[in-house]
Every structure is written in structure tokens, then in C-alpha cells.
Amino acid sequence: MDYIHLKDMQFYGYHGVLAAETTLGQRFRANVSLAVDMTKAGETDDLVYTVNYAEVYAICRDIAEGEPFKLIEALVSKIANTILQAYPDKVKGVRVELIKPDPPIQGYYKEVSVEVTRGEYR
């Protein structure tokens, strides 16, 4: 299997359970990996045989900066499922990690994240 990776995409959204998250918003980072057979794209040098990662970025941005979710588990699932639905014949599997670098909780930590894997992803 071949993979396309979009790493450290950054967005600003209003997702969360706490009032500060839904009022002030916060930064989110995302990493997305797509399982795609790129054999034909590699042989032909033709975009039609692969996935346009600019379009995938736009899907992630529109969801992450769009309608608020209480749980990032719901947000990351929406991103993964939307990508699979957008490319049913090309994307065999997807892994999405969503990172909250500054959640409004007390303690010492670098970040919190949620990751989902959907479809055929190894």
C-alpha cells in the first residue's frame, strides 16, 4: 500500500465541552494519512490516478473550522469519514490524528490528541 501524508495542518475552531473552548476557540493541529494505490499515478504522472492533497486539506479545514463539535472524537471521525466518502474508489483507508496543543485543563503536558483509523489502513 502507498500513503499520502498531510502533516501538521493547523486550524482554529470552537470545539469542546468547556465554555472557554466554545467561546474563545482554540488552535488544532491535524495529521492525515491516506492509503492509496499510486502505481498508475507513478507510471503516468497524471493526477487523475491519485488523490489531490489540496482537496483533502480543504476538507479538513472546512470541517475543523466549521460547525463546532463537543468531542474531538466526533470531529476526527467526521474528517475521516468525509475523506473516505469523497474518494471511495481511491482511498482504501485513512488515519486522522487531531491534536489540541492548548486545552484549557490544569496540569503539565505537551498536548492531547485523538486518532482514528478507518478502512483498510496498515
Count of distinct structural domains:
1
Rg from Cα: 16 Å
Overall pLDDT: 95
CATH class annotation: Alpha Beta
The total strand number stands at: 4
CATH superfamily: GTP cyclohydrolase I, C-terminal domain/NADPH-dependent 7-cyano-7-deazaguanine reductase, N-terminal domain
N-end to C-end Cα span: 8 Å
Give the strand line-up of the largest sheet: 1-2-3-4
The number of helices is: 4
Question: Which spans have pLDDT < 50 for at least 5 consecutive residues?
Answer: none
Structure in words:
The protein is an alpha+beta fold and 122 residues long. It has a single domain, classed as GTP cyclohydrolase I, C-terminal domain/NADPH-dependent 7-cyano-7-deazaguanine reductase, N-terminal domain (GTP Cyclohydrolase I, domain 2, 2-Layer Sandwich), CATH 3.30.1130.10. 32% of the residues lie in helices and 34% in strands. A 4-stranded antiparallel beta sheet has the order 1-2-3-4. The chain starts with a strand and ends with a strand. The model has no long low-confidence stretch (mean pLDDT 95).
Note the main attributes of this structure.
4 helices, 122 residues, elongated, four-stranded antiparallel β-sheet, GTP Cyclohydrolase I, domain 2, alpha+beta, 4 strands
Write the layout of secondary structure elements.
Layout: E1 2-13, H1 19-24, E2 26-36, H2 39-44, H3 53-64, H4 72-86, E3 91-100, E4 112-119
Antiparallel strand pairs: 1-2, 2-3, 3-4
Helix pairs in contact: 3-4
Compact overview of the structure:
By secondary structure, the chain is of the alpha+beta class.
